[in-house]
Amino acid sequence: MSGKALNPYNESASATFPNGTQALYGTPTAAGQVIYKDNNDGTVNIYDVPSHFQDKRWDEDEYSKNQSNNILNNPKTVKLKDFSQSELDNWIPIISESNESQAQDSSESDSDKDTSVTRENVIDIVEEYEGHSLNTSQYTYKEPEQSDDGDWGFSFTDKNGDLAGSYIIDQDGNVTKYDEDGEPE
Fold first, then answer.
1. Domain locations in the chain?
2. What number is the average pLDDT over the span 115-131?
3. FRET partner for 137 with CA separation of 20 to 30 A, picked from 20, 56, 99, 165?
């Protein structure tokens, strides 16, 4: 992440990550990200970077500059645990087992996966469905809401405020995209 803009949707008005910054991303169904820098003293700085820049204020240069600088100037510093080799050896069977189950999971079809859809991962699921990040420079995305039947959904508008479409994500993680007239695409 070194040298990359914190706000990828307004790069010219964003602070950039310092040298040595790394990123760890979960799968879309697991969600989550950790963006950190090793301080080489047994601690890491963790930056509270949004996973999505849905707030349209991020499009405003002044807001983007201030917020991105604020995030990078106020990291959470975490002390890393120094494990002995015997403690690490105890984790090898667990980690190996996790890797084997992940390999099995990746060979399953989408219909066989147990996907738990939550407010935290609903955007990630839609981005996986679309094959790219949502275009916040062209559209404004509403906050996801859960219906009584457990499905999640959200709409999006163009920059004029006109409805441009919506998504419904069922409890199994299946996405249906609708156009501005409510017709499935």
1. 11-79, 84-113, 115-179
2. 85
3. 20
CA dist., res. 160 & res. 167, Å (int) = 19
**Coil, helix or strand for 60?**
coil
Residue 120, both tokens: 């935290």
| Residue-wise pLDDT tens digits, 61-105 | 999 999 999 999 999 999 988 778 888 788 777 765 444 444 444
Q: Which residues of 65-100 are buried (b: 16+ CB within 10 A; e: fewer)?
A: bebbeebbeebeeeeeeeeeeeeeeeeeeeeeeeee
H-helix or E-strand containing 70? helix 61-73
Which of 53, 82, 86 lies closest to 68 in space, CA to CA? Answer: 53
The listed range with the strongest mean pLDDT (27-36, 65-74, 83-92, 156-165) is 65-74
State both tokens at 183: 């017709």
Contacts of 99 (CB under 8 A, 6+ apart): none
